[in-house]
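Appendix B: complex inputs.
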Amino acid sequence: MPSVSDPAVKVENLEVSFRTTADRPSIRGLGSSLPGRRGKVNGTVVEALRGISFDVQRGSVYGVIGRNGAGKSTMFRAVAGILSPTGGQVTTSGRVTPLLTVGLGFNRELSGYENILLGGLALGLKTDEVKNHHEEIVQFSELGPAIMHPMRTYSSGMFSRLAFSVATHLDPEIVLIDEALSAGDAAFKKKSQSKILDMCSSDTTVMIVSHGLEVVKNLADRALWLDKGLVKMEGTTEDVIGNYLEHLAVEANATSMEDM
Amino acid sequence: MLIETTEGAQAEPRPARKPRVMAARRSGMPPLREYMSEVVDRRQFIWHMARTNLKGKHFDSVLGQLWLILDPILLAAVYYMLRSVVRPMGSDPAARTALITHLIWAVSFFYFTRGVALGGAKSVLGNKRLVLNASFPRLILPLTALVTAVIEFIPTLGIYLLFHAFMGQPITMNLVFLLPILILQVTFNFGFGLLLAPAMVNYRDINGFITYFLRVWLYASPVLYTVAEIPAGLETYLRWNPLYPLYASLEQVFGGSPPSVDYLLAALAWAVTSLVIGMIVFMRKEGGLAIRL
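Resulting structure:
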C-alpha cells in the first residue's frame, strides 16, 4: 500500500527511443518492417530519453527545464502514459492529468460548454464527477457567453484557458503542465499560478515544463535539468536554475568567441 | 513567494490509489485483464464520444438524421440501375421485387459493416489530439467508431424490416437469426479495422487504397447479386471470401429459412480469427502510436 511518504511519481531508468526511417516511410521501409527482417532497418534510432531517474514527492511542485529537444515533452508523455517506455519504468500513485501544449481532445464542432464533459471524460473521470464542477470550470475560464459558441471559433488563448480550467478543477492528483501557463493574458497567468499553489496545498502534485525560468522559480520546490535525454542535474530549484544559467552563459560565450 | 493563494486551502487526504506501473514489455502487450477493465471503466467516455460524433456529423445538413434512411435507399437505387444494365432481369415482377429488397438490405448491411471497419481503421488518425493529450486504452477509439455505426444502423434496420413486410417478403421466426449473424459480421469488420488502424498511422498511403479495396470486396461478395446467380466455376473461389458465408446466410434468413450451420461456423471462424489478430496487432502497436501522429 502506498503511504504518504511514497513519491507520487517515481521514474526509474526511463528510456524512450523510436525509429525514424529517413523522415518518412517508404516502400523500402515497408519491406524492412516485415517479420524476419528486424535489425536490418536502415533508419535512425532517436533516443529521446536515455535512462533517466527521479522522484517527485506528493504535494510538491516539480520544475523541468532544459533546451529544445532535451526530451522534456517526451518525458511528460511517458509519465502521463501516452507513450510506452522502451526501457525502465514509471510508477505513478494517483490519476495523472496531462495538460500539454496542444490542449485537450476537444471536439471543435461543439461548444466549449459541451466540451467540458468530453475533456473530463477523456481525463478518466465519470460524468457525475465532471458535472459537479461544471459551473466552477465555466467561471474560472472567464469565457463569458463564448462558452456556448463552437470551439472552432475560439482563439488559441481561449482554447488553452478552457483546457487549463478543466484540468485543474477536476480534483487532479498529479498534474503535468507543459508550457500551458503561457496561456491567456497576464491576469489569467497570475490567476493560474495561484490556482497551482492552491492545488498543492490540497496534496496535488504538479510537474511543470517551462522555458520561462521565472515560472519554475516562483512555483517549484525542486527542479530537474534535462540535457539530450539525460539528467544533467536534479536538486532544489535555486541550485538547478543557477547552474543552468551558468551553463547557458558559458555556451553563449563559446559561440560568441567562435564568431570573433 | 510572490503569489498569494485565492481560495482557502483544504488539505483533505485522498484515499490511497493503487500505484500504476508503466514499463517496457517484452511481449509489447499491456496486461489484458487490467486493460479490459480500464476499457469498461471508460464506457461513459465511449458513449459520450459516440453521441457527439453523431451530433457533429449531420449538424450542418438540412435533412439531418433523415440521411440515415436516405443513404441506403439512394445507394440501393444506384446499384439497382447498375444491375439492370449489367444483367437485365426480364419482366417477372416477383423476381424484380425480390431483387430490389435484396439490394436494399444487402447494400445497407454492407455499408454499415464497411463503416465499422473504416471507422475503426481511421479512429486513431482522426483523433490525433486526443491520442497526443490523454492517456487511455486506445481500444476506446475504434470502439467508439463501432458504437457510432451501430446507433446509426438501428433506425435503418427498423425501416428496412417495415419495407420488407410491405413488399410481401416472408416474415418468419427465422428473422431472429439476424442478430447473431450481424454480431459475427460486426466482429469480423471490427477486427479488420483494428488491424488497419495502426498501419494507417505508420503508412498513410493505406488511406488512399482502402476505399478501392472495399469496393472490390463489395463486388466479390454476394451483395449486388444472389448466391444462386454465382456461376459454378466462380463459387469455389468466392467461398474463401470471409463475407461470403455472412451474406449467404443473411439471404437464407431474409428468404424465410434458417441459416445453414456450415455458413454460421465459417462466419464464426472468420470473426474470431479477425478479432484475435486485430486485437493483438492493435494492442502491440498502441504504445508507440503517439510518436507517429
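Chain A touches chain B through 61 residues (CB under 8 Å).
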